[in-house]
Design brief:
alpha/beta; 4-stranded parallel sheet; 4-stranded antiparallel sheet; elongated
Length: 325
């Protein structure tokens, strides 16, 4: 497995009796190393997303979908190495040719999309992604040749919407799904497939291998993408009561403070000024906008949003509208 493999996936494989070797920056490097071991020890290498038997086995999901859901308009399937969508597309298109088969990849590794554009499998650099199960730089040749004529459309989805999809599944379905498994839902939530509105659509939730620490990050990123976690910088008085006034204002809006950080040492303005970075939890975008509006009325310097540089311009640090207590 590559070094990006979730610890839970490694642990569970070991519990099932597998000898797990973590080697390589991505699945391609891991595959090369596995093939080398196979040659040295005369072992059979089975490609997990391109071996013909694997592709046939993946098709069982397509059969189950067809058996369990009638009159399907579309199946939206996550795509990594291409094995799952290949077997599923072959089964679905054989039994229901009019059903659309749509693939979804992370924007951090759109290898199948690039290969479709090139007309052949091409190497696509893989970046770190919440959907680590889809981070396959070079898709399978067998998978590509089989699936390319059957796939109606490919779309890519951002990390933001993958995190939001994971959060929605936890909150609404009480299901813990890894990033790769939630990618198809993320595409629908991101509005990538407006033609499917009102249609009968199947979205497989394929994969639950997600580390607890990563899950926590996904939840926080999902909350941020949903407007329910916000961060901002504000300059307030550093005299007694300055922070209390800010806290009171935030509390009066029904907003909860998650984190607060004071910056005193590096300011170049009034010695009685303090720059405060605050992370808060709100009910959503509308509630957050109300808080931002209230802050701008009460304080002359408010920088809303993440990745805001620390305030250094002295002209921004005026506290003329702030009452010292």
């Amino acid at each position: 497995m590559p070094i990006i493999a979730p610890l839970m996936k490694v642990s569970m494989c070991e519990q099932y009796g597998a000898t797990v070797i973590v080697k390589g920056a991505d699945i391609n490097e891991s595959r090369s190393y596995a093939m080398k071991i196979g040659q040295e020890k005369n072992l059979l290498y089975v490609n997990g997303y391109d071996h013909p038997h694997i592709l046939a086995g993946q098709g069982s999901m397509g059969l189950e979908i067809y058996d369990q859901v009638k009159d399907i308009d579309a199946v939206v399937c996550p795509v990594g190495g291409g094995g799952l969508i290949t077997g599923t597309a072959l089964a679905i298109k054989t039994l229901s040719p009019s059903t659309l088969v749509i693939g979804v990849e992370s924007e951090r590794c759109p290898s199948f999309t690039k290969s479709m554009e090139a007309g052949k499998p091409v190497y696509t650099p893989s970046l770190s992604t919440l959907a680590d199960g889809l981070a396959v730089p070079m898709i399978g040749v067998n998978a590509f040749k089989t699936a390319a004529p059957l796939i109606d459309k490919m779309v890519v989805v951002s990390e933001e919407y993958i995190a939001l999809a994971i959060l929605r599944l936890i909150e609404m379905e009480k299901a813990v799904v890894e990033g790769a498994g939630a990618a198809a839902l993320a595409a629908l939530m991101a509005g990538k497939l407006p033609e499917l509105k009102g249609k009968r659509v199947v979205v497989p939730l394929c994969g639950g291998n997600i580390d607890s620490t990563v899950l926590g990050r996904c939840i926080e990123r999902g909350l941020a993408a949903d407007g329910r976690m916000c961060t901002f910088y504000v300059v307030v008085s550093d005299r007694p009561g300055g922070i209390a006034e800010l806290s009171k204002l935030i509390s009066s809006m029904g907003v909860s403070i998650k984190d607060i950080y004071h910056e005193r040492a590096w300011l170049k303005a009034d010695i009685f000024s303090v720059q405060v970075k605050v992370t808060v939890e709100t009910r959503g975008f509308e509630h957050a906008a109300e808080l931002e509006s209230k802050l701008r009325v009460s304080y002359p310097t408010v920088l809303w949003g993440p990745q805001v540089p620390e305030i250094r311009d002295q002209s921004l640090l005026s506290l003329t509208n702030v009452n010292d207590n």
